[in-house]
Amino acid sequence: MYRTFYNIKFEPFSTIPSPDIFYDSGIHQDAWQYLEHGLSCLEPLLLITGDHGTGKTLLCLKLLRKLQQKNDCFFVYIPVPVYSYEFLLHEIARQLDIPVTTTDEAAIQYLVLQHFTFAARGSAIYILLDDVHTMKPDELAKLLLLADFNYHEFFPVKFSLFAHCSLLDALRKPELLSLQYKLKRPFLLTGLNLPETKEYIYFRLLKAEAPGIPAFTEDAIKEIHSLSKGIPLLINKICDVCLMIGAEQKAGIIELPLVVEAQKVLDVGGYKEEKTETKVDLIQEPYIAAPSIDVNHARTEGAGNISNKQMLSTIRSLTAFLIIVLIFLCSALAVMSYYQYRLISSFKNIAAEVKPASPPVPDGKSRYSPPVTMPAEKPPVFEERSFSSVAPVPASTSVNNASEAAPTTAPANAQYIPHEDVQPTTAPSTPYTPEESTTTQKTIIETTAPALPEKTVRYPYSIQLASYNSLSGAIERIALFKDAGLSPYLTRSLSRQTGEVYWVIYSGYYRTREEAERFRRLNNLNDALVTKTPFANLVGIYTSHEEMADMIKRLERAGQFPYVIEDTAATLRLYVGAFTTRRGAESHKEELLTVGINATPEER
Q: Is the pTM of this model over 0.85?
């Protein structure tokens, strides 16, 4: 239902337990260690208890998978133990390959014991029983008599029981009192705490390969934990309904009002279970004894409390709206200040371009001197330059052909560029006789192109938004990040361990890790990572965005994702790629050369 909107592979909050999605919380880690220790010590009887939905069936299935992988032991798994003692004995005999032709319980039990005494001495069978609290006490007492059988102090029948907490009360009955004495210690499963609830939600989203959305706010997670009491099954139910409502409302972030609405849906849907309900069709944890949402809030219902909750929700919504408006105004002021600064800088550059030419002063005290008075018969000579968007490579150029003509008047875009190693030249002192076909004056000028401008600030950090093993999937995700207001760019990366090619989506460039972390937290990019990517390929240096428009189109046609870093007001550096090592940038440079684009690897 909501898989398409959130672009996830499967429903992350299914109520069907699966060992492939096992969240290793503190209490579940202790429970698993309890089972492993009991198996290694050959304990004849293990018991896991807990409320419905705490994960007992999931632990049982994980233990079953471990026994299946051993390939050298016998086991019997009974997920719904509502059968008779005779059926259970037949199932045990079938697993042990014991031919049974009788229906007498005592005879079948004798065959099983004889099997372990003579045919399979030293071997054991593990019997896994789920929902043991649903068995009749007399049937359970007869079944557990098998745990008493031993030969040479070896107990071949091992029981692993999983039951509701009510079984501990049933063990106080006279017919089951011996079972209570045999138990070394039962283990009690409890709910998750608040930090574990948050980790559990995002753990299941990551297992479903969610690409960063949906995201749950802190208030929403607190409300989910309060409603569910940390019971994993109830957390799954609430989160599943939240995603359904969020997909209908096109919400990428699950906030507190959505959780409140999900609570109402669960109340209407009738998720109230009886404590005696059992599993019949699906091997999953029943909903029965987990504290339902209406029970958790039964004491707090009332007109006054509902009004207070609605008022609190309204105040929070207004506060969030005011914060958004304030952020918008601050952003608008920042943008206006930026363009005002660019406009002033442009006027300064225009004013600097029309300054009169002046030769450099030898003593170095002042770079510019008053305008030089040229002889009346020799008009001032200007150098005509075409302004390239990319800084040229230093070189020396001379004009020696006397037959070429130069204009006697300065062109409209003529400019004199002062340089330390440029000396102004004048016409030769010998008389000059113009030819019949020549009416202009020629002057030889030697110039040296300026060097590349030095970087003022370095930006070694980026924010890694996501990574994909297919280019098409990465391009689709980039479009969503752009719609969210980010400026993503794509880089191809090679895994050092597996050699696979990944497409990594980055956003932004930052001077320090702290600056990147602030941006990540401000934009709620909880699944993003701050990565140090100091190297990139410099395609060119420009003075305005208009000058680089053709190069950007050329890069995009070549399948590249360029981005711009403003070094100064009049210096814009056009980059492609972001790499952790210079070697990666140089490899990318070779790829650019194959499409006719020259770039320079550098620390950006």
A: no
Q: Give 236 or 415, the one with higher predicted confidence.
A: 236
Query: Tell me, which fold does domain 3-13+192-296 have in CATH?
Result: Helicase, Ruva Protein; domain 3 (1.10.8)
Q: Looking at this protein, which amino acid is placed at residue 476?
A: E
pLDDT reading at 187 higher than 60: yes
- 72 φ/ψ angles, rounded to the nearest 5 degrees: -135, 20
The pLDDT assigned to 517 comes to 93
- What are the boundaries of each domain within the chain? 3-13+192-296, 26-189, 461-603
- The region of weakest confidence among 61-65, 169-173, 225-229, 234-238 is 169-173
399 φ, ψ (degrees, to nearest 5): -115, 115
Mean pLDDT of 316-329: 92
Give per-residue pLDDT as tens, 410-457: 333 333 333 333 333 333 444 444 444 344 333 333 334 345 566 778
Compute the radius of gyration of the chain from its Cα atoms: 39
Q: At what angle do helices 232-248 and 256-269 cross, to 10 degrees?
A: 110
Say which CATH topology domain 461-603 has.
Alpha-Beta Plaits (3.30.70)
Closest by Cα among 594, 466, 459, 453 to 536: 459
pLDDT mean over 166-180:
76
Report DSSP letters for 296-344, one per residue. HTTTT-SHHHHHHHHHHHHHHHHHHHHHHHHHHHHHHHHHHHHHHHHHH
Closest CA to 293 of 219, 241, 218, 245: 241
The string of DSSP codes covering 414-469 is ------TT-------SS-----TT--S------EEPPPPPPPS----EEEEEEEES
3-13+192-296 and 26-189 have identical folds: no
Residue 11: burial class (beta carbons within 10 Å; 0-12, 13-18, 19+): middle
Q: What is the pLDDT of residue 330?
A: 93
> CA 297, 300, 302, 303 torsion: positive or negative?
negative
Could you identify the residue written with the tokens 């990551």? 206
Topology of domain 26-189, per CATH? Rossmann fold (3.40.50)
* HSE-up of residue 264 (Cα within 13 Å, Cβ side): 7
Look at residue 411 in the predicted model and tell me its pLDDT: 38
